Amino acid sequence: MGRLASAMFHIALRFAALIVAALPLPALACSVADGYRVPTNLELAQDAELILLGKVMGVESGKEGVPQSHALLVQPLSAIKGELPAGMVKLPGIGLLADPRFLALSNPYDLIDAHPLSYIGGCIRYMFPQGSTVLFFLKPGQTAGSWAPSGGPFSRWAEDVPADGGPWTTLSAIYARAGTLPAADREALLESEHAALSARTDDPVALLMAADIARQIAGPNEEWNTQLDRARERDDGAGEGAAESTVDTTLDAMRRSEGK
């Protein structure tokens, strides 16, 4: 959960009711079993059958009140892993972001945390702004020709990326290639990429990428619930007041916007 651990814990608790009322969420909330670990970026790339750069085009409507009958429509642009689909990609149960108040694009320089909406409501991101370019990590869906999110709760399965791809796209290509190699060769590749990026000391983006590769070399993430417990313990002290103040300020702003 990284930097978002403490803040997102409070925001999830305080914002859940408001966001559920304002947005068509397929699930009200979620929790994970003890022992669950958010996949590392390397694990995410290894497990995905298709890593797709695509543009969000719209939604194919289904049966009213049945979220899984609706599908996000994505125009394929390029495939980092797997074969580029010939036609529009359909993601059942995924939709467009209907309320502009909750519009937020992924930070192209945050290579750790998932999109903020992944931490509120359901366990993954399933709302997207139309027209956004997104890097999707996918597996075959339950219906013929459809696709589904690859990666578990709170994973970076779908992040907005800039037109030139940005560091996340570059890293994902490295991880996709590394994931096909035997363990020793995989480690050698990651060490080589890390050294090359670390040497670019006057390039802060390269250093951010090097730091992310170092996290992959370090191994699996800590258990999610352990991170949550630590966040709760921290927020029992002085930090809780600051977190609450930030949430209250945001809620007040949202209430004011509702009254306009």
Please name the defining characteristics of this protein.
260 residues, alpha+beta, OB fold (Dihydrolipoamide Acetyltransferase, E2P), 6-stranded antiparallel β-sheet, two-stranded parallel sheet, 7 helices, 17% strand
Detailed description of the structure:
The chain has 260 residues and is α+β, with helices and mostly antiparallel strands. The protein has one domain (4-245): OB fold (Dihydrolipoamide Acetyltransferase, E2P). It is 39% helix and 17% strand. It has helices at 4-22, 41-47, 166-178, 183-198, 204-218, 224-235, 239-258; strands spanning 50-60, 71-81, 89-92, 95-96, 127-128, 133-140, 147-149, 158-160. Strands 1, 2, 3, 6, 7 and 8 form a six-stranded antiparallel β-sheet that branches. Strands 4-5 form a two-stranded parallel sheet. The longest helix has 20 residues, at 239-258. It starts with a helix and ends with a helix. Residues 4-28 have low confidence and may be disordered.
Topology readout:
Layout: H1 4-22, H2 41-47, E1 50-60, E2 71-81, E3 89-92, E4 95-96, E5 127-128, E6 133-140, E7 147-149, E8 158-160, H3 166-178, H4 183-198, H5 204-218, H6 224-235, H7 239-258
Parallel strand pairs: 4-5
Antiparallel strand pairs: 1-2, 1-6, 2-3, 6-7, 6-8
Helix pairs in contact: 1-7, 2-3, 3-4, 4-5
